[in-house]
Amino acid sequence: MTTFYLIRHGEPEWTINERYKLRGHGRDLVPLTPLGIKQVYEASRDDRLKNAQLIISSPYTRALQTAAILSKELQLEIQVEFDLREWQPDLSFQYDTMKQLQELGADYDLHNGIYPEGETRLWESQPMMKARMEGVISKYLYYEHVIVAGHGMLFRTQYPIEEIPHAHIIELNKVRG
């Protein structure tokens, strides 16, 4: 069995998005706030992480910065996994405002992350996210303990929880084979 320690990134500095008018994936380049950095340092002291053998991380800045702090504190290597990226609110990568993001998120929530019968949406569905998360996890089942630095919506495809606090750790056990 492999234990994955899913760690949501620390608090991000979202105000940068509006200041620089970032669009699409550019909105995922924001670093952590000072509070977010502190949250990750606190999480790194959790005794459960001492057995970890590797850190895998989303490619987004907030998750990579989280992974870097954990790596420094725990003396572990980081492997970047593109499929650990956060939910894609707009698969055309054109959204550019918080209002649009909130509208896309509200539509996702209205449909519980599932496209209505016979329809598609701009946003990535919950089954799409779940499949890519499980694809990544399956590659690391030969380890016993793995830290995963990533995102709340993606982690919620594996663990039923309404909201995951920043730098919160969730244990996910998966059976090899």
UniProtKB/TrEMBL annotation:
CDD domains: HP_PGM_like (cd07067)
Gene Ontology CC annotations of this record: cytoplasm
Highest taxon above the source species: Bacteria
Pfam families, A to Z: His_Phos_1 (PF00300)
Matches recorded under SUPFAM superfamilies: Phosphoglycerate mutase-like (SSF53254)
GO molecular function, one term: phosphatase activity
Listed InterPro entries: His_Pase_superF_clade-1, His_PPase_superfam, PGM_Phosphatase
Protein name (Swiss-Prot/TrEMBL): Phosphoglycerate mutase
